[in-house]
Design a protein that fits this description.
Oligomer: single chain
Number of strands: 4
Strand content: under 5%
Order of helices and strands: HHHEHHEEEHHHHHHHH
Number of helices: 13
Distance between the termini: 7 Å
Length: about 325
């Protein structure tokens, strides 16, 4: 009797079928890619927000501090060169691409100045405006991410869900993002301490610790990937959505971890293709469109997977309840 009950359970949602459904949904509602298109165009053709002048203003004080710490002059020069290269390549507008909820971007973290229109305009921050810019850009990224996820969820499951209100979407996105950053900081500090101690003891021990951390990270990355889905599909609050994600992961970790890995490999791998055209070539428009469409379709596929997998888990638990066992007996 137990065997027959297990055999009668419905099959879980397929990974490939969910991703395919996401592509079909975005193809039918292609306006869902508008926000990533807009952000990609801004980071490609728009001005660069940099902190070169701020670094130069602090350079003398940094050198004095390093000299007081008895750091060799050669090392000081190497650090100065490293900081100078970093400040020349960073575009602070890339902070508009926030995690875990945010608008997908092909150029986040890249500050190259070449465009088909010539060299991009460069804006500089100073010590006073730097923290203000950081807070402003991150908040705008959260707001944009809330509208992006809301639009994609509606495109993916328009006939099965009721769209969350805009204010609620922004509020819950902000709460989830803040909680996510707090949790990551709380996890990363002891992890780095353990790695530092292990590295002092033995390189082999450090490699083993890295291996165990990589295996254990599945329990963090997979739930975090689905943290926001309950907000946009079931209109849950931030805490309930995070708990729903943990419950889903508890019952479906092997399949869900494979789904998240597939999404990551497709997105990360195709980014190499989208970046083949030179930054100063208009052919980059094709890469921007391809990236915007594919990443939006993958996000839509994740909403479809989450919705169907939740329904599957509920159906399985319902069939396995003792009352159903008695009826089937």
């Amino acid at each position: 009797m137990e065997v027959s009950r297990i055999e009668n359970l419905p099959p879980p949602p397929g990974i490939i079928s969910s991703i395919k459904a996401g592509f079909d949904a975005v193809a039918a509602r292609v306006t869902a890619i508008f926000l990533p298109l807009l952000l990609n165009l801004l980071l490609w053709l728009g001005p660069r927000l940099r902190m070169e002048e701020m670094f130069k203003g602090m350079e003398a004080d940094m050198v004095l501090f390093w000299q007081a710490s008895r750091i060799p002059s050669e090392d000081i020069q190497k650090m100065l060169d490293m900081y100078e290269r970093a400040t020349q390549s960073i575009n602070l507008f890339g902070l508009l691409r926030t995690l875990p909820i945010g608008i997908s971007s092909l150029f986040a973290g890249q500050g190259a100045s070449e465009t088909p229109l010539g060299g991009a305009a460069v804006w500089q921050v100073d010590v006073i405006t730097f923290p203000l810019w950081i807070m402003f850009l991150i908040f705008i990224g959260w707001v944009g991410g809330a509208f992006y996820f809301r639009d994609v969820a509606w495109a993916a499951l328009a006939e099965k869900i009721t769209s969350v209100r805009a204010f609620q979407a922004v509020l819950q996105t902000t709460l989830i993002s803040i909680l996510c950053n707090m949790i990551l900081i709380a996890i990363s500090v002891p992890v780095f301490l353990i790695l530092a101690v292990a590295a002092q003891v033995s390189a082999v021990l450090a490699n083993l610790v890295v291996l165990f951390i990589a295996l254990g990270s599945v329990w963090v990355i997979v739930p975090m990937f689905f943290w926001a889905h309950g907000v946009f599909l079931d209109r849950q609050n931030a805490l309930t959505s995070m708990l729903s994600s943990l419950q889903l992961t508890r019952f479906t970790l092997p399949t869900s971890s494979l789904f998240v890995l597939t999404i990551f490999l497709l997105s990360y791998g195709l980014n190499f293709l989208w970046r083949i055209p030179a930054r100063d070539s208009w052919v980059t428009l094709l890469g921007i469109f391809g990236h915007s469409f594919v990443t939006t379709a993958l996000l839509a596929g994740s909403f479809i997977y989450y919705h169907n997998m939740n329904a599957w888990v509920k159906a399985v638990l319902e069939k396995l309840r003792p009352n159903n066992m008695v009826k089937q007996a």
